[in-house]
Amino acid sequence: MLAVLSPGQGSQKPGFLTPWLALPGVESRLRWWSVPAGVDLVRLGTEADADEIRDTARTQPLLVASALIAAEQLPLHDVNLVAGHSVGELAAAALAGVFSAETAITLAGVRGREMAAACALAPTGMAAVLGGDPDEVLAALETHGLHPANRNGGGQVVAAGTLDALDKLAAEPPAKARIVRLQVAGAFHTPYMGPAEQALAAVAAGITPSTPARLLLSDLDGAAVAHGRELVHRLVRQVTAPVRWDLCMRTLVGLGVTGVLELPPAGTLAGLVKRELKATGVPEIVTLNTPADLPAARDLIARHSGPPGHRPTPRARVVVAPAVGTFTPAEGLAEGAELSAGQVLGQVTTRQGPVEVTAHDSGPLTEWLAHPADPVAPGRPIARIGGQA
Q1: Residue 46: how many CB atoms within 10 A of its CB?
Q2: Domain Malonyl-CoA:ACP transacylase (MAT): where (predicted)?
């Protein structure tokens, strides 16, 4: 199985899109996408310096556009699985067919501008905590009033909060941990981004999303999301919620992923996968940064993708498992019961704990498709709601 990954903020480098403009149609595509992005993607990707592309309002649409422009050069029709880190999840959603590339870039533009505006409301920041005992690191963050904004795996947690609290953490780091301040404008993925979440929600409410055409992992909990409206809700919630990339990588292991392709600007996620999965077996990885990497990427896709036409996600009236584990239905819930949207149907017991399975729609519980103690994986049918799928 092949996973295609889209990186998040901090992976960009000055001029990283320059070689892509040599390909036919790329420059015109970027100029078209610059309209919904609200920024000049061509200039930002070729001429802007490091400080300019570090600006959240510019970085986020630039990163989504770079991933999508590279993906357009690839035969992804048989790819089973996509995921993205933070804003990269917008690109992953577009690749999964939840919405168009233009919608993804529009949302990235709104998200970037509103998060930049939220950063200006209070002096906040972020710092990477490298190493140390995970429980001790989280306890230290709580002691200093900080949030674990990113839990990236590979011994890396990103702390976020006030600058004063970050200074105290640096002065009193957890045992065997190193603190590295990040050059960002504020405390992303924390309650400080509340105004940005509200603004993005107002825009996202106008989207009519589609059911994902392939497995799409969510940064909220590493679960596969089978329904477009739920995915949009999670994308909005992600603005203030921690990025759980560690759980996404555990899902890759549980699914038996054998190949990983990271879209440009590539390298960060590949490094995390290598460190986190070294004990269980690192999949074959290709980092796609320039058109010169396209032959290797196409070869990886050909050798690790699913069978032609394979689509692992069931249709919309079927509730599917969000994670790898064993299924337990809700007590007393029988076929024929009338369900409401959001009702808990049961849980999947995973190595990280229980994950709830909820109804995405209202209607009668027509049929159980999984039974107590059945092993399940993301996308595995759990129950049918009303009529035929």
Answers
A1: 18
A2: 5-331
Query: What type of residue is 20?
Result: W
- For 340-374, write each residue's pLDDT tens digit: 877 899 999 987 778 888 887 788 998 898 889 98
Q: Identify the active-site residue in 6, 34, 86, 218.
A: 86
Q: Is 34 a catalytic residue?
A: no
* pLDDT of res. 317: 64
Going by C-alpha positions, the residue among 263, 264, 272 that lies closest to residue 243 is: 272
Mean pLDDT of 214-227: 90
CB atoms within 10 A of CB 139: 12
pLDDT digits (tens, 9 = 90+) for 281-292: 889 999 999 999
Alpha-carbon dihedral sign for residues 230, 231, 232, 237? positive
CB-facing half-sphere around the CA of 77: CA atoms within 13 A: 3
- Residue corresponding to tokens 């595995």: 380
Q: Which of 40-54, 143-157, 348-362 has the lowest mean pLDDT?
A: 348-362
**DSSP string over 120-162:** TTS-EEEEEEEES-HHHHHHHHHHTT-EEEEEEETTEEEEEEE
274-277: long-range contacts, CB 8 A cutoff, minimum separation 24 = 275/153, 275/154, 275/155, 276/153, 276/154, 276/246, 276/249, 277/249, 277/252, 277/253
Q: Is 222 helix (H, G, I), strand (E, B) or coil?
A: coil
Q: Could you confirm whether 86 is annotated as catalytic?
A: yes
Q: In what order do the strands lie in the sheet with 353-358?
A: 353-358, 344-350, 325-329, 375-376
CA distances from 70 to 154, 219, 262, 290, 371 (A): 27, 22, 10, 9, 42
Give the residue among 190, 168, 178 at the shortest CA–CA distance from 240: 190
| Segments of 8-167 assigned E as strands | 81-84, 124-131, 147-153, 156-162
